[in-house]
Write a structure and sequence with these properties.
single chain, about 475 residues, alpha/beta, Rossmann fold, pyruvate-formate lyase- activating enzyme, OB fold (Dihydrolipoamide Acetyltransferase, E2P), 3 domains, five-stranded mixed barrel, 15 helices, binds 5'-deoxyadenosine, binds iron/sulfur cluster
Length: about 475
């Protein structure tokens, strides 16, 4: 999962038009919704579902909370500092609310689920608290608030997948989009709050996933990322609409179905779990050129003893075996990871084991974290958070340093070669440059070139790199492609 912070904005006119004729009694023409998302990609995808539900009620979205009628903050509980950021932001919204008492402030997502009605007691400015499985209730909850009450719905569901809701693409580039394929998590990693905030794992109907991917492709999108907390345990059982027969679809089969929509549509997915990723998935990636050679396979720790305390249900050896399988079946596959420094009782030797597994895998990229105890988790109940903050910090900086070196090493392998990229638009730093990612998810920046536009696949010769970016120039002829 990636910690991002983003505010929403645009939605297309078409959907807005459609919204105005739906469910007329609840239409609030012209009311403005501002939605801000924190945490993982799943939260960003959920905000697009929330926006879709409210646009169907006649809302418009705005990128400026000062002109909004409703401000939603879609929250993350994964680490304490993520929650702190949300609280700081809420106090800024509080200033606005004092200026405009009619402003409705809502807290959505994982913090809403974790804190429930406590949120309404602790943060007086909050009017509505809604958990990740209750977004369909938002119109009713807003009506309650308008009639002068605080409103809350934090019920978790075993079925809700929002399969029939077509997300409004917020803040998008029109080229790449997320598709949720499942919700919740049954894994119970001992450090993790997600099973408590997002509930039980459930897979979404493959027909609705395919329809969403096809629709995106028809509208000019060129890349979809299939999202789940643990995509490898995707499993759907039900009746096939065409053949009216009982079918079962696993993740490898779903990947293949989406890949067959068009060779021009790239497929990515996240997150994979080392205990569940099968050779069938790896062979499916190898078989289809448009399934990107990139796997996010969080290791968390390189020590088997720590992994057991984390309840990850695999050992160091098992993880290494999965890495070897990836290298054998998809030789040029990029691999990234999540790593936690300073989990309960972690010794110096065990920390060294994390560094040594990083040496073995040579990750292309890693998200690195200092262990943060989360109330209610298995680890909080069973173990003492006994690694001093300064030790966690030092171990984390050693992990970070190693990752910077390996990221640079990985990117250097592309220098002097030509890579195929999907152009996403102008680069963040300069509108004279374009950017896009290659198959292995490396960011490539190159000078804007006549005839090249966002959404095109182009070949770029990599001239040099930093530890985060490849820098190159577009090539017209067709040299050896890696
Ligand atoms: N402390 C630190 N990192 C955590 N993660 C999840 N829970 C915690 C925690 N309590 C990290 C894991 C996970 C990623 C999304 O966040 O590495 O894979
Ligand atoms: Fe949390 Fe583990 Fe589930 Fe990931 S797999 S969401 S770390 S419980």
């Amino acid at each position: 999962m990636i910690d991002l912070q983003l505010t929403d904005k645009k939605h297309d006119e078409e959907r807005q038009g459609e919204a105005l004729i739906v469910d007329a009694p609840l239409v609030r023409n012209g009311r403005k919704l501002y939605i801000e998302s924190y945490g993982c990609q799943m939260n960003f995808a959920d905000s697009e579902i929330v926006a879709s539900i409210l646009l169907d009620q006649g809302f418009e979205t705005t990128g400026d909370y000062k002109e909004a009628d409703v401000v939603f903050i879609n929250t993350c509980s994964i680490r304490e500092n993520a929650e702190q950021r949300v609280r700081n932001r809420l106090s800024q919204f509080g200033v606005e609310k004092r200026r405009n008492p009619k402003l409705i402030v809502g807290v959505l997502g994982c913090m809403a689920e974790r804190l429930k009605s406590k949120f309404l007691e602790e943060e007086k400015l909050v009017d509505v608290v809604v958990g990740p499985d209750a977004y369909r209730e938002l119109p009713q909850l807003l009506s309650e608030v308008e009639s002068g009450h605080k409103a809350i719905n934090v019920l978790l569901s075993r079925e809700e997948t929002y399969a029939d809701i077509s997300p409004v693409r917020l803040n998008g580039n029109g080229i790449t989009a997320f598709i949720s394929i499942m919700r919740g998590c049954d894994n119970m990693c001992s450090f993790c709050v997600v099973p408590f905030t997002r509930g039980r794992e459930r897979s979404r109907d493959p027909h609705s996933i395919m329809a969403e991917a096809q629709d995106l492709f028809d509208r000019g999108y060129k890349e979809v990322t299939l999202l789940g907390q643990n995509v490898d345990s995707y499993k759907w059982k039900g009746t096939d609409v065409e053949e009216s027969a009982e079918i079962e679809v696993n993740f490898a089969q779903l990947l293949e179905k989406v890949a067959l929509i068009s060779p021009e549509l790239r497929i990515r997915f996240s997150t994979s779990h080392p205990k569940d990723i099968t050779d069938e998935v790896l062979y499916t990636i190898a078989k289809h050129d448009n399934i990107c050679n990139y796997i996010h396979l969080p290791v968390q720790s390189g020590s088997s003893r720590v992994l057991e305390l984390m309840n990850r249900t695999y050992t160091r050896e098992w993880y290494i075996n999965r890495i070897d399988a990836i290298r054998n079946i998809i030789p040029d596959c990029a691999i990234s990871s999540d790593i936690i420094a300073g989990f309960c009782t972690e010794t110096e030797e065990e920390h060294q084991e994390t560094l040594s597994i990083m040496d073995y895998v040579k990750y292309d990229f890693a998200f690195t974290f200092s262990y943060s105890e989360r109330p209610g988790t298995l680890a909080a109940r069973k173990f003492e958070d006994d690694i001093p903050e300064e030790v966690k910090k030092r171990r984390l900086s050693e992990i970070l340093l190693k990752q910077q070196e390996t990221s640079l090493y990985r990117l250097q392998q592309f220098v002097g070669k030509t890579v195929r990229i999907l152009v996403e638009g102008t680069s963040k730093k300069s509108d004279k440059d374009f950017c896009g990612r290659n198959d292995q998810n490396a960011m490539v920046v190159f000078p804007a070139t006549e005839g090249v536009t966002a959404g095109q696949y182009v070949n770029v010769h990599v001239d040099r790199c930093t530890s985060a970016t490849l820098l190159g120039t577009v090539v017209v002829e067709e040299p050896e492609i890696v």
